[in-house]
Amino acid sequence: MRHIVATLALLPMLAFAGAALAGGIEVENAWARASIGTERPGVAYMTIRNSGAASDRLLGAKTPVSKRAMVHESLMKDGVMKMRPAEDIDIAPGATVMLEPGGLHLMLTFLQKKLVEDESFALTLTFEHAGEVMVDVMIAGMGAKKAPHEHHEHHGEQKHHDQQMHKEHHGEQEHHDNHHE
Known about the structure:
The structure is a single chain. By secondary structure, the chain is of the alpha+beta class. It has one domain: Immunoglobulin-like, CATH 2.60.40. It has two helices and eleven strands, in the order αβββββββββββα. Strands 1, 2, 3, 4, 5, 6, 7, 8, 9, 10 and 11 form an eleven-stranded mixed β-sheet that branches. The longest helix is centred in the last third of the chain and has 20 residues, at 150-169. It is globular and about 40 Å long. The two termini are 25 Å apart.
């Protein structure tokens, strides 16, 4: 019985470990940088793919961790890096849009809580045709340049758990050690 409870406890983590998909729009590797506090804006990044047959458009975003989430773009002008709000993002069929450091990104203004490394938060993206797509955003360190690896570790933990369940079910002795894949 305890193994069923343990498996059920892992399901919410596994649901967020993969990509979010709705109406041909797939959102992967959503991550943010940890914040010093709530006084300065936060930032979130992700990969958005359109595997549908029609174009779609990212119209907006919302999250409980900030009062406002807006798409911004960083651009170099006269040798100075500047940031400004971006228009809605069109995503053609088969296209991929990267929200990444130094380019398009979600600016999270008026943070409602500190963004803490190794935690996560919910984010809802609104698309013209796909509607709302909910993603879980993993929080990396303050100076991170890429997504944290927690997304992949959840899969490894489930595989390890499944191997233990298989051993116990087939009468093999369960081994407890600190080895994780």
